[in-house]
Design brief:
Blueprint (H helix, E strand, L loop, with lengths): L11 H19 L6 H8 L3 H7 L3 H18 L11 H18 L1 H15 L5 H21 L6 H25 L2 H22 L2
Helix pairs in contact: 1-2, 1-3, 1-6, 4-6, 4-7, 5-6, 5-8, 5-9, 6-7, 7-8, 8-9
């Protein structure tokens, strides 16, 4: 990619976003571990020194990229109106919608999955990984409350953890196999199984 003209002027935040976009592009093609700062600046079309102007280190970029992509993914998650749907039907729609987003644009989700694993083994990124998990769990809890399930708060929290784990597992399975038919069938089975469990535990 050609380098930007020296006359190009952007704010620090614009430069940072430009490098984050380039990092996502390169990581989608090569993986996180194989992505170098030079490859990122080349993809962004900026001098190598621009990276160090915007980020203290590659780890700092990974931190910001993980945070940004988590927020982006969460912004479109669980955008469903529970009115008129049973819990089982609504859960099925939510899970299928998530899988559809992953199938449509798998690259960012592959990078996000790899970044999340890396964060769990890096002391400097571990808290960000925990933050990511809490944010997703809170989203699921918010949706469960909107369904007004007749369950104690503790059981709702446990249910949110199970649903989140299920969605993560289904997403990882599709990213590995790219088998649309199997992922759709598995999502239907998951939603119906959780739905039956919830119905059996209604007070």
């Amino acid at each position: 990619m050609s380098t930007e003209p020296a006359t190009a002027r952007r704010s620090l935040n614009e430069r940072r976003q430009q490098l984050l976009d380039a990092a996502l592009e390169v990581m989608s093609e090569r993986g996180v571990a194989a992505t170098t700062t030079r490859a990122i600046t080349e993809a962004a079309g900026v001098p190598q020194g621009m990276f160090h102007y915007c980020f203290d280190s590659k780890r700092a970029l990974l931190h910001d990229l993980l945070e940004r992509e988590c927020e982006s993914a969460m912004a479109v998650a669980w955008q469903l109106d529970p009115a008129g749907d049973t819990f089982t039907v609504g859960l099925g729609k939510a899970v299928q919608a998530q899988l559809a987003r992953v199938r449509a644009v798998p690259g960012p989700y592959l990078v996000l999955a790899e970044l999340t694993v890396a964060a769990r083994t890096d002391p400097d990124l571990l808290e960000l990984s925990r933050w990511e998990h809490r944010q997703y769990a809170d989203l699921v809890m918010e949706q469960l409350r909107r369904w007004k399930l007749d369950l104690p708060e503790g059981e709702l929290e446990s249910l949110a953890v199970v649903i989140l784990a299920g969605i993560e597992g289904l997403t990882d399975a599709w990213l590995t196999t790219r088998d649309d038919e199997a992922s759709i069938a598995a999502a239907e089975l998951f939603a119906s199984g959780i739905g039956a469990l919830v119905e059996s535990r209604q007070a």
